[in-house]
Amino acid sequence: MTLVCLGLQAQEEEKGEQLLVFRNTGVVDLLYTQEVDSILTTDSTQVFYAKDTTLIVPFAELDSVAVGSRNEMKFHKGVRELTAQDDLPWIIRFDGQSVYYRLTTPTNILPSVGMKLFCKIEDHLNEGTIFPLGLSVRVTNVTKLSEEIRVDVEVVPLKEIFERLFFAGSFSGSQPVAASIKQNVRRAPVHATLELGHTINMEDLGSIDISGNLSINGDAVISLNPFHNHSHADLILKYGFGTNVSLEARENASFNYEELGRDLRLGTFYGLLNLDAAVGAFADLSAELKLGVSIERTYSRRLRWDRNGDENSFELKEVNAGEPFEDEAKIDLTLKGEVFFGPILRIDFSTVGDLAGARAKVKVGPKVTGEISMGMLQQMRNYQPSFYGNAKLSLSSQIAVEGYVINRHNLVWGDVDEHEIFHTSLSFGEHDWNLFPDYTQSNAIATTTKAKEVKTDVATAVEEPTPTDLETGFELLDPEGNAVDSVFVGTIQSKPEVLSKPQTFNTERTLSSSIKQEELEGYTMRPIFHYAGYTISAAPVGIKKDVLLQPYSSTQSNGAMTFISSGPFLGSAVKDSTLYQVGAYLPVPLKQNVYQTGLGFMPIPSAIPINEDQSEMLMGTWKGTIDEQEITIIFNEDGTGKYNDLPFVYELNVPQSGTLLLVFKNEESMVYRVVAINETKIQLKDKRDKQQQMIELEKI
Question: Helix, strand, or coil here: 153?
Answer without folding.
Answer: strand
